[in-house]
Description:
Layout: H1 5-40, H2 46-57, H3 64-76, E1 95-97, E2 100-101, E3 110-114, H4 119-122, E4 125-130, E5 134-139, H5 161-164, E6 169-173, E7 178-179, E8 188-189, E9 195-202, H6 207-212, E10 219-227
Parallel strand pairs: 2-10
Antiparallel strand pairs: 1-3, 3-6, 4-5, 4-9, 7-8, 9-10
Helix pairs in contact: 2-3
Amino acid sequence: MTISTSSFASVLLVAAMPVALLLAGGCDRASSAPNEAAGAEPQRQPQAQANAAVDAAASSSASPAALYAADLAQAVAGAKKVPFPAGVTGIGGMDCSPAALVGTTPATRAFTLTLPADASARRHVLAAVTPERGLLEIYSPYEADAAEAGDLLIPSQAISWAKARTQNRFAVSTDDLDGLRPGGARPEALFLEPGRYRFALINGMDAALLKTNGTVVKVIAACSVDWAPQDAGSGEASR
């Protein structure tokens, strides 16, 4: 039997088509696999989101209130290293003085935290956002008779709710202040790592509870102070 050249070429072409289609399909699957794998895992980048939120709030038109609101919202959500622009003044009748501490001597570790004169404003959670460790509680308000239960954990004796009931100005040292991590059971020194510390009175620091109640973080008052110990590069060295 005689097979023409054109017929033979057609046979080869038909035979090659499944192989070509198979190879093409394999290439398509290989090229899409990384994208599918990337999409399979949720992109959890709280720090990047925190940075983006602060960068957005730090526009030339942003007010100090907007900056603190963005800062505290990210800190309550669990972000640890939230950048905060320098030179932002206090809001809501709250003041940190002086605004910068070097911490090399007792005199340079002393500062005054002034809370709002309005007692109802002070009746909120007093928290601090640290440069590296995120959010720490300084005090939470409670009813007067709750202290008799003996099961209250008081993070800081220097600035406590018992004192904030009747006073709004606290002359303290960085050595005096402790804070409590969300859900924590043991207070820790507040001033450790150098950087900008933000103090704020907020409506709560339990992110899950705020979400359940259908509310967002609200900043009633806030101020900030820079801690830059020059003796050993750490606030812990001065303790």
